[in-house]
Design brief:
- Strands 3-2-4-1-5-6-7-8 form an eight-stranded mixed β-sheet, with helices on both faces.
- It has about 325 residues and is an alpha/beta fold.
């Protein structure tokens, strides 16, 4: 079964009739959130195939342009087109639609086995609090993502604690406090400009004493140098590890999808100074560059764990490759 047929059978209209309401809502969120990316990628692939009877050198050049403009990344785009050329010659395929399907298959086969279910939810410790460290430069939606993650796990029955470790940015603590109040969630704060590791220590202590399931620790979005960032994150990690066994259990980097390849560069920089267990992509609904998912995975090797598909609290979704592909490739056609 080809990828397109697989996606239709899994998420098509007939399937939606028997799916749970939560699953249907999730699929709809992907379709809506990826609308701009779909128009820049799938729609352009479809239009391109209609202009050619058989593929030629120009066709492959246009495919390469679509990939790069969809933010797949230059290096990965070149590799994909080279593989496609070789495979199409080997199989003697020249039909544009078939070539496009081969390209899409090749794009995502390296990310995960087709149809395989990957658990991207936070992995909770068997005993005691689970600690999630959240990193990211200023302006990427870090505070909002923390709030959405807290909302998600509060609604799963978990006791969540927020720790305002971004003591350097003016207003960061206050913004997180506002979300804590809205979510009726406890929060640990320190003094503006104070030691983030000290706030992390207070958070770990509170979590142990109050039966907290999930501790979400915000960190500074911008320090002067990589050495400074490494030193600060290292100090926080050591403090948390001393207080709670195995902490931090997860370290997420928040990346703004609208920043394109700058987001990939940010991910590379943070990976150099701290061990990341996952990426949270925000503002996917506001960009036409859906290929950033592949670019990040290809260049830094860290999986996308959650994806922001809108402004509502429920719009931060666990990343599901199949739903992502359906929303990116077929969502619009299924509505016709």
């Amino acid at each position: 079964m080809g990828l397109f047929s697989f996606l239709k059978s899994k998420f098509g209209k007939k399937k939606e009739e028997t799916a749970s309401s939560a699953e249907t809502n999730s699929v709809e969120a992907y379709k809506k959130g990826l609308e701009k990316s779909r128009k820049n990628f799938a729609s352009r692939l479809d239009e391109l195939s209609k202009r050619y009877d058989r593929v030629n050198g120009e066709y492959f050049e246009e495919l390469e342009e679509i990939l790069i403009e969809s933010d797949v990344g230059v290096e990965l785009s070149l590799k994909l087109i080279e593989n496609l050329l070789n495979e199409s010659e080997k199989q003697k395929v020249s039909e544009p639609k078939k070539i496009n399907e081969m390209l899409v298959d090749d794009m995502f086969v390296g990310y995960a086995t087709k149809g395989e279910s990957i658990e991207n939810e936070i992995r909770f410790a068997s005993e005691g609090p689970t600690v999630l460290l959240v990193c990211g430069v200023n302006g990427v939606g870090k505070t909002t993502s923390i709030a959405k993650l807290a909302y998600r796990y509060i609604h799963k029955g978990k006791k969540v604690l927020l720790v305002a470790g971004d003591t350097f940015r003016a207003g960061a603590v206050e913004q997180l406090q506002v979300w804590a109040d809205r979510l009726h969630c406890p929060i640990i704060v320190g003094k503006t400009g104070g030691d983030p590791a000290s706030v992390a220590f207070d958070g770990a202590k509170y979590a142990k004493e109050n039966g907290i399931d999930l501790v979400i620790v915000d960190t500074a979005g911008r320090l002067q140098t990589k050495a400074n960032l490494m030193q600060e994150l290292g100090k926080i990690n050591r403090v948390l590890g001393r207080e709670i066994e195995g902490a931090p259990h997860e370290s997420f980097l928040i990346v703004d999808a609208t920043t394109g390849q700058n987001g990939v560069l940010q991910a590379k920089a943070f990976k150099e100074v701290t061990e990341l267990t996952g990426i949270v992509i925000t503002k996917m609904d506001g960009t036409s560059k859906g290929g950033i998912i592949l670019s990040i995975r290809d260049e830094i090797g860290v999986p996308v764990r959650f994806i922001g598909l809108g402004e509502k609290m429920e719009d931060l979704q666990e990343f599901d490759l199949d739903k992502y592909l359906y929303g990116l490739l077929l969502g619009e056609k299924e509505d016709e």
